[in-house]
Amino acid sequence: MQPFDSQVPPPPSKKSGLPWWGIMLIVVAVLVPTCGVLSALSTYGVRKYLVKAKQDEALKALPVFAAAVAKCADAHGGLPRTSTPVPASLADVSGKKYQSAVNEWTLDPTLSCSGFSMSGAQYFQYQWVLETPSSGAVQASADLDGDGAIESQFRLRVDCVQNRCAAEAGAPSAALRDRGETAQPR
User: What's the domain count of the chain?
Assistant: First the structure.
C-alpha cells in the first residue's frame, strides 16, 4: 500500500489563447464571404450553361433548314420568297418555349416547299429571308431572357450559282452577342 499523499495538486492555470466564441467569430467571418463568392460564381456558370444549351437548338436546326431551302430551290429553279417567321411574333418565344402547330409550317409556300418544321417546343423564331434572287439566309432569333430584345440570332446563308443552290458550309454565324455569352459555332 502506498502512503497517502497529503499534498493538494495545484489549481489549473488559466488557458491562454482565444475563447471559443472568438474562434467561432473568425470561422463565420471567413465562411460567409466565401459562400457568397461561390454562390455568385455558380449562378453565373449555370446561366451561361442554360443560354448555351438553348442556343444549341438553333445551331442544330439551321443547317437542316438551309439544306431544305436549297433542295426546294433546286426543285423549283430558284430560291423561294421570304417566309413568314414561326412563330409569327418574337413575343411568343420571349423568355419561354413555344410549341408551333403543324399548319404554321405547311401554310407558308416557302416553308411547305422546304419541308422543314420543328416538332418539339422551341426557344427560337425561324425564318427564311430572300436577300437577292440568288442568295438568302435562314435565321433563328431569340429573346432568351424575356426582356423584349433579341439576344441571340444565328444565320446560315444559301447561295445559288448557275441554277445550283447550296447551304453555306460550316456552322451558323452569330449575328448578335448575348452580352458576351453567345455560343460559338462548333
Answer: 1
User: Is 91 inside any structural domain?
Assistant: yes
Residue 162: left (phi > 0), alpha (psi -120 to 50), or beta?
left
Query: How far is residue 74 from each of residues 39, 68, 79, 162, measured CA to CA in Å?
Result: 54, 10, 8, 11
Residue 128 is assigned to a structural domain of this protein: yes
Q: Quick one: which of 106, 59, 109, 58 has its CA closest to 79?
A: 109
Instruction: Please check whether residue 132 lies inside any domain of the structure.
Output: yes
Q: Which residues contact 64 (CB under 8 A, 6 or more apart)?
A: 116
Residues β-bridged to residue 66: none
pLDDT digit string, tens, across residues 11-42: 666 666 788 888 888 888 888 888 887 777 77
Structural contact between residues 139 and 154, judged by C-beta atoms closer than 8 angstroms: yes
Cβ atoms of 129 and 69 within 8 Å: the answer is no
pTM above 0.90, yes or no: no
Element (H, E) at 173: strand 173-174
**Residue in the block written with cell 419541308:** 115
Range of the domain at 49: 21-174
Could you give the CA distance from residue 137 to residue 75 in angstroms, rounded to a whole number? Answer: 18
Tens-digit pLDDT profile for residues 92-139: 999 999 999 999 999 999 999 999 999 999 999 999 999 999 999 999
